[in-house]
Design brief:
Blueprint lengths: L10 E6 L22 H9 L6 E5 L13 E5 L7 H11 L4 E6 L7 H14 L2 E6 L2 E2 L4 E4 L3 H7 L15 E4 L1 H4 L15 H11 L1
Parallel strand pairs: 1-2, 1-4, 2-3, 5-8
Antiparallel strand pairs: 4-7, 5-6
């Protein structure tokens, strides 16, 4: 199989797929668009032209749907269901490129222009680029240098809190005045937690 040449050969994408999904009631990796396409497959399709590889990280007992991508790798968390920080660690252990973009399978409003803007800053400054919204950092739509692996390995020994990343990262905060030009409605950081969130998303995309 011929693997398409990525626009950014030094960038990989990691997608977290391993949460317990207790609030949704079923695996978020199986969320679909109104036409029946899996939301996760749709995200793979959007990412493929940009990145060298796509890595999914989840719990070992998490059954994933059949997916199609020539760049796909699946890895498993050592400490299942302990939160997204463990997923970050799984992704950083597997990545082969200097930079890693991380997002989650339950974030349906993907902005390719914003991804490109974050990447340009990350490459120029060689540090993490993390959007900020009114609630704080959006770590699940951010780009990180792979040098984060060793500090992350130590951090996960003492905490499972994703917000603790700020303790070990040199961060360029991508504030609203920067990202609004790429996503004027501020949807890129929205996720689907409850069945009513999913139903609302389906109604909006019909």
């Amino acid at each position: 199989m011929t693997i398409p040449t990525p626009r950014y050969p030094d960038l990989s994408a990691g997608i977290l797929v391993g949460g317990a999904s207790r609030r949704m009631g079923f695996s978020k990796a199986r969320l679909s668009l109104p036409d029946g396409t899996l939301l996760l497959q749709h995200k793979l399709n959007l990412l493929e032209p940009f990145v060298a590889e796509i890595i999914l990280a989840g719990a070992p007992d998490r059954s994933l749907p059949e997916l199609s991508s020539s760049k796909l790798t699946i890895v498993y968390d050592q400490k299942a269901y302990t939160g997204p920080l463990e997923g970050f660690y799984s992704l950083f252990q597997a990545v082969k490129t200097p930079y890693l973009f991380i997002t989650a399978c339950d974030m349906p409003y993907f902005s390719c222009p914003l991804l490109e803007a974050l990447y340009q800053v990350a490459r120029k400054e060689n540090r993490a680029v993390v959007p900020l919204n009114e609630s704080g950092p959006v770590y699940l739509f951010s780009i990180f240098p792979v040098s984060l692996l060793k500090p992350l390995e130590e951090l996960r020994k003492t905490t499972t809190a994703l917000k603790s990343l700020a303790q070990i990262l040199d961060i360029h905060w991508f504030e609203p005045e920067k990202w609004l030009k790429f996503d004027p409605e501020g949807r890129f950081y929205q996720n689907l937690n409850f069945p009513e969130d999913y139903q609302r998303f389906l109604q909006e995309t019909v």
